[in-house]
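Reminder to self: tokens first, then the designed residues, so the page reads top to bottom the way the pipeline ran.
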């Protein structure tokens, strides 16, 4: 059986008690916004999930052309990109920039070693920029994480609507409850459940260094999800600029 936002609300309400009504306001607020904050956080960099991954193979390159617009309506952020030459050989592009721009170039002598997300038109397209393009690549595999899809009703379930499977219930339920306590100003209880959710998230996530995990967990002790997410985006941009 699918696990819905309403089930998370009922579980949380049983712990919060009646002094924090989660659906008392129009639009089932603040529960709807808290749920969507959790969805955006878990499905944003640096976290990548197989349940939120998609691939696009529509890109064909032109020698000397840097910019390519792809009609991808649900693009969130770029994860990997591989070029396939005329002989069927795969070439990985090792450096991926989601927040840092790179210069436009018409160099036709160098296989591209980087790609940046130059422009996102939400719900319509994404433009990728390469610093060089030496040849025609007959196909490319663009692997990306999908943009977060938000709840619009409490009857929707976490996986079908938001790509968060039931195996991550211990993550999103604890993060939800932490933000619910934060909404009421109970910072001590908020920190307890936020730490539980963050510990489960970091234990499940792959591709992070121990230093990154320690920094994210430390931030969770003193900040809400919105602040943590903003800090992670800033750190990702700073890291990209040093490469």
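Designed residues (243 positions):
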């Amino acid at each position: 059986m699918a696990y819905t936002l309403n089930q998370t609300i009922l579980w949380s309400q049983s712990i919060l008690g009646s002094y924090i009504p989660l659906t008392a306001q129009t639009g089932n607020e603040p529960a709807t916004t808290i749920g969507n904050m959790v969805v955006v956080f878990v499905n944003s960099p640096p976290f990548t999930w197989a349940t939120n991954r998609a691939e696009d193979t529509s890109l064909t390159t032109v020698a000397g052309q840097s910019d390519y617009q792809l009609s991808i309506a649900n693009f969130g952020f770029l994860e990997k990109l591989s070029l396939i030459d005329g002989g069927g050989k795969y070439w990985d592009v090792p450096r991926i920039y989601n927040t840092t721009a790179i210069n436009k170039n018409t160099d036709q002598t160098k296989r591209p070693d980087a790609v940046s997300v130059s422009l996102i038109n939400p719900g319509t397209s994404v433009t990728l920029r390469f610093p060089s393009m030496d040849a025609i690549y007959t196909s490319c595999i663009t692997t990306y994480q999908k943009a977060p899809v938000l709840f619009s009703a409490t009857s929707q379930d976490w996986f079908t609507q938001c790509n968060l499977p039931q195996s991550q219930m211990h993550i999103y339920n604890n993060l939800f409850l932490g933000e619910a306590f934060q909404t009421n100003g109970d910072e001590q209880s908020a920190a307890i459940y936020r730490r539980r959710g963050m510990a489960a998230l970091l234990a499940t996530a792959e591709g992070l260094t121990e230093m990154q995990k320690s920094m994210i967990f430390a931030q969770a002790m003193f900040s809400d999800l919105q602040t943590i997410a903003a800090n992670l985006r800033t750190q990702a941009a700073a890291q990209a600029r040093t490469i």
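The chain has two domains: 5-44+151-241, 53-146.
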